Amino acid sequence: MPDSIAPQTTEHFDCLILGAGISGVAAAYHIGEQCPDHSIVVLESEKSFGGTWWTHRSPGIRSDSDLHTFGYRFKPWIGPPIATAEEILAYMGDVIEENDLAPYIRYQHKILAADWSEADSLWTIDAIRTDFDEPVQFTANFLFMCQGYYRHNEGFTPEWPGIADFKGTIAHPENWPDDLDYSGKNVVVIGSGATAATVVPAMTDKAAHVTMLQRTPTYFRTGRNAIEIAEELRELQVDETWIHEIVRRKIQYEQTAFTKLCRTKPDVVRRDLIGNIRNLLGPDFDVEKHFAPDYRPWRQRIAFVPDADLFNRIAEGKASVVTDHIERFTEDGIELKSGETLKADVVVTATGFNMNTMGDIGFSKDGQPFAFNETVTFKGTMFTGIPNLAYVFGYFRGSWTLRSEIIADFVCRMLNHMRVTGAASVRPQLRPHEQDMELHSWVDEEDFNPGYLLRAKDLLPKRGESRDWRHTQDHWREKDEFPAIDLTDEVFQYRAKSQSSVAAE
Ligand SMILES: Cc1cc2nc3c(=O)[nH]c(=O)nc-3n(C[C@H](O)[C@H](O)[C@H](O)COP(=O)(O)OP(=O)(O)OC[C@H]3O[C@@H](n4cnc5c(N)ncnc54)[C@H](O)[C@@H]3O)c2cc1C
Fold first, then answer.
1. Domains of the chain and CATH, by start
2. Is 21 touching ligand 1 by the criterion CB < 6 Å?
3. pLDDT at 167 over 80
């Protein structure tokens, strides 16, 4: 950073948490509870908390997993399981207020760079206050990366020919124009994932017609937006804390069983999922063409459609689905490879994300830049040779937050262990017998292969052969494996503060 804009002061914290989304707030809560003698700060580039739920403003925005498991284990969720962004933000607001977390969060602080000093065992973090366009600097012993997995406010939009000729409005769900009025308009939503599946039924409220234009189909599950056992326990006046815990266990157990079934009996699952859509859309609808993907169920996230609203709007004729490829945009719509044209006043590009690797921060060690794709991941949360840093990457199939809390517990245990043993730094290392382990890209494409991950796979850390060196996506086992990690294992290389820096203090 040039001297002319150098920050005036540097504040120090034991742990700096990046991001005030669902993971960053979990991190702040658990460190506060489990490591009360550690000082913390949360830096967040947006104006408020919530991450995904704060930045996404498109119509109908809602979760696609249940809030008993997407919510925190320590705060019961008492609403319907699938929740709107507004409801999730209100829940997070309550968590922040009830636990007095607000004083620890600094908004409009965008982190730009982090440099590790080997001599001082310290991260120096350069950020910019986006409200005043002013540089600020922090030092921290430990960096807890809760930045999520994609760039906010910058969705992925393919470069289609003729897009500049289009005279209507183009909106990406990550950059929703506040003043977009689609009343009486023809809307085309490009995409087939969870976002498209929410935007399409939501926009039928005012649009003349909404068309979902997809290249390939996706699997969907449908059901009532309610959990029977929760309803029954409520009737019995069981305490909400118990209901939350019971429902969480049931969902986690059933999700694990469903994932197993997708591997062992993919044809049965496929037949059930597609059969359900056929029942909703009737015998004349070409379900094979529009809702029968050619991959094994669960290789991409299966979105839950509450009350089957997407399919009901299609059955009512308010929405339709077209499976085709875009040839080019025209002045008033989209020309498809099949020769068909779609007239559009508004095009919504629900075409996915650009991955964010480690908050898009410039990382260095003693001033020398390093890249995370040169490291191997320890359980998808720490990286070989990278000191005092942990990262949250949640589950694809289960709720993200389940993993945020498991990792927060692990970080708390590690911080306390280091405090007790006097270690100034910890970094994972391959054990002697693992030095020649075969390494692969982070993504196991056989297991899970959404486009945003494949586009970014060369930027991500490497994965090894054994469970210790990969993000297994297996919550049912991880919930027991993480608490059992032996912090004295040779996989962790601890270092005391270097003598020269101790003497200088
Ligand atoms: C529309 C949508 C629906 C989803 N629904 C579900 C669901 O139902 N269930 C589920 O499990 N998952 C869902 N996901 C995935 C979802 O992103 C995660 O579950 C979860 O919200 C991620 O939380 P997070 O806190 O880890 O990251 P985010 O929500 O991405 O928050 C990260 C925060 O870090 C901040 N940040 C990033 N870089 C920097 C920086 N350099 N400096 C300062 N701050 C920074 C960001 O501003 C952001 O506020 C959904 C995703 C989308 C887009």
1. 3-152+355-495 (3.50.50.60), 157-351 (3.50.50.60)
2. yes
3. yes
